[in-house]
Design goal:
Helix content: 10-25%
Number of strands: 11
Number of helices: 1
Strand content: 35-45%
CATH class: Mainly Beta
CATH topology: Immunoglobulin-like
Shape: globular
Radius of gyration: 21 Å
Structural class: mainly beta
Distance between the termini: 54 Å
Order of helices and strands: HEEEEEEEEEEE
CATH architecture: Sandwich
């Protein structure tokens, strides 16, 4: 079969697009997993909503997740329950006043865990971050991704 030059260009473009990696195949932790992560919780003054930086915390196996408020009155983080928390039982809630940090060592993540997400590259745990500033409460829903391993 003979393809005209413009058909060859179209075929090459289609093949090029098909060969590109899909977003779902990429990790949600492009800069990798870190031994210790401190997420800073604050309030966006212009919009009155909580901010958490990083919004997705990527913690290495046996690493530590911490939180700290950079302004306001207080902060808190809550995971739904122990099964949906990256911490040992009884450690699904953390809180502190401004400039106080709190957190814990993360538990082990295995690729066989219900929380494991291959496209994220680890075990994914959503949580609620609450920030109180000048008596006003704002909430954000960030996540922690734990590197799999033993």
């Amino acid at each position: 079969m003979y393809l005209k030059p413009w058909n060859l260009a179209i075929a090459a473009a289609v093949l090029g697009i098909a060969a590109m990696p899909h977003a779902s195949a990429q990790s949600s932790c492009p800069s990798g997993f870190h031994r210790s992560v401190t997420a800073r919780i604050s309030t966006d003054a212009a919009h009155g909503v909580a901010l958490v930086r990083p919004d997705t915390a990527c913690v290495a196996k046996n690493g530590r997740m911490n939180w700290k408020a950079t302004d306001g009155d207080s902060w808190a983080t809550d995971f739904d329950d122990d099964a949906h928390s990256p911490f040992d039982a009884g450690k699904k809630h953390h809180e502190g006043k401004v400039a106080q940090s709190g957190g814990d060592v993360v538990r082990t993540c295995a690729k066989t865990d219900a929380s494991y997400n291959a496209s994220a590259g680890g075990c994914v745990f959503k949580y609620k971050a609450t920030h109180v500033k000048n008596g006003k409460t704002s909430v954000k829903d960030p996540q922690v991704i734990i590197q799999p391993g033993s």
